[in-house]
């Protein structure tokens, strides 16, 4: 039913419907769902002498004029005053409006848009925005696109000046490929609302489209940040948005396999001990995941010298660098120059398999310590 309402809204700016025409085409349940959500709202018919109904009709095809006779409703054809009257039901009256703003409010909340829904002009609304790494993506609804669409749509970019990317949802699908390309070059993505809207829950299937566009702009994978994640980025100053997972998977020899941004790499076990310790700290610690060099030594994650930590860090940096979004492993394996270290990403972007319980971590640590002792023994 929502699709039909949207199609009608494309034709006229304030479409009205009768209950009977909607439930005949669709269902009472769907009608009640949409009135319950206030997407369809009842408007009391005015005492208008020109009120007419679309259904039923005269045999000539003309709409019938409504007349109240006592408490009954009757319809007459102005062309055939001698025919009829047709007895009308109150639900034949065209008394339900489809205020598009209410639908847009449902879309904003179902898709976690931040900011306020606001009307830009009669047929254009700003729905809100989402935050992606280093990027704000804004969403705008435009009911009708005119001939000067390029100027108008790219002009919206200056109104929504905080939005690096703007997604414009329109009612009519636009077949103008050149216009779309030009808009895309300005980071304005135009999408027909009906193609991307789930009419049951108002979710928009737009994630892959935004993600592809962000990749084209050279921005890290288009992972949307939740409000909490964004607050954490502000509070703890994490530098990166890379995804790293520790699946507890063995590689060749004593190596372990980890996964960075979807690519698998093999890490030597003593380096793994350092890396996974930082990951565990980050996941457990709510102070941003920092751990001091002294603690690393005390917990026997590294040997008892600062030079050893620096060498481990430097070796890991070289290995991880090619797989990081910004290829900046110095930020990813962050050192605050005061002797503290951490993985500089949000804890939600670090995945630790359940197997990395304390026990498995201790097994790895004991193996590394044993090897250290063996080497020391044979060292000249
Ligand atoms: Zn007639």
- Number of distinct helices: 14
> Which structural class fits the helix and strand makeup?
alpha+beta
- Our measurement of the CA-to-CA distance between the termini, rounded to an integer number of angstroms, reads 83 Å
Strand content: 15-25%
Helix content: 25-40%
User: How many distinct beta strands?
Assistant: 19
Supply the key terms.
14 helices, 380 residues, binds zinc ion, 3 domains, 4-stranded antiparallel sheet, 5-stranded mixed sheet, elongated
Summary?
The chain is α+β, with helices and mostly antiparallel strands.
In words, what does this structure look like?
This protein is α+β, with helices and mostly antiparallel strands. It has helices spanning 2-11, 19-25, 28-36, 100-110, 149-159, 177-185, 193-196, 207-216, 227-236, 269-284, 293-298, 306-320, 329-332, 358-378; strands at 16-18, 41-42, 52-57, 63-69, 72-76, 86-88, 94-97, 118-121, 124-132, 135-142, 165-170, 188-192, 244-250, 256-260, 263-267, 291-292, 333-335, 340-343, 350-352. The longest helix has 21 residues, at 358-378. The N and C termini lie far apart (83 Å). The model has no long low-confidence stretch (mean pLDDT 89). It binds zinc ion. Zinc ion binds at residues 58, 60, 62, 77, 79-80. Zinc ion is lined by residues 58, 60, 62, 77, 79-80.
């Amino acid at each position: 039913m929502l699709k039909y309402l949207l199609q009608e809204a494309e034709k006229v700016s304030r479409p009205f419907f009768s209950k009977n025409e909607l439930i005949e085409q669709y269902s009472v349940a769907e009608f009640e769902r949409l009135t319950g959500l206030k997407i369809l709202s009842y408007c009391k018919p005015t005492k208008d002498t020109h009120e007419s109904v679309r259904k039923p009709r005269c045999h000539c095809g003309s709409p019938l004029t409504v007349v109240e006779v006592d408490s009954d409703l009757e319809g007459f054809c102005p062309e055939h005053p001698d025919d009829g009257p047709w007895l009308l039901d109150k639900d034949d009256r065209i008394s339900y409006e489809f205020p598009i703003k209410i639908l847009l409010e449902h879309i904003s909340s179902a898709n976690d848009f931040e900011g306020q829904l606001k009307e830009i002009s009669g047929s254009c609304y700003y729905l809100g925005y989402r935050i992606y790494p280093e990027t704000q993506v804004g969403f705008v609804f435009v009911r009708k696109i005119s001939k000067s669409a390029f100027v108008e749509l790219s002009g919206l970019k200056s109104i929504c000046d905080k939005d690096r990317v703007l997604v414009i949802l329109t009612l009519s699908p636009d077949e103008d490929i050149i216009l779309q390309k030009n808009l895309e070059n300005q980071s304005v993505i135009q999408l027909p609302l009906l193609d991307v809207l789930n009419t049951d829950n108002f979710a928009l299937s737009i994630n892959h489209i935004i993600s592809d566009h962000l990749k084209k702009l050279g921005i890290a994978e288009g992972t949307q940040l939740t409000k909490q994640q964004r607050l954490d980025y502000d509070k703890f100053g994490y530098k990166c948005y890379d995804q790293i997972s520790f699946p507890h998977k063995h590689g060749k020899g004593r190596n372990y396999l980890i996964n960075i941004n979807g690519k698998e790499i093999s890490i030597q076990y003593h380096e793994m001990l350092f890396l996974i310790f930082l990951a565990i700290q980050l996941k457990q610690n709510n102070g941003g995941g920092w751990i001091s060099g002294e603690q690393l030594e005390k917990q026997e994650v590294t040997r008892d010298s600062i030079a050893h930590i620096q060498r481990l860090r430097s070796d890991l940096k070289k290995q991880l660098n090619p797989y990081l979004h910004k290829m900046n492993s110095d930020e990813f394996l962050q050192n605050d120059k005061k002797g503290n270290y951490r993985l500089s990403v949000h804890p939600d972007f670090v995945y630790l398999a359940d197997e990395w319980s304390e026990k498995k971590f201790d097994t790895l640590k004991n193996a590394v310590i044993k090897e250290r002792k063996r080497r020391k023994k044979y060292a000249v």
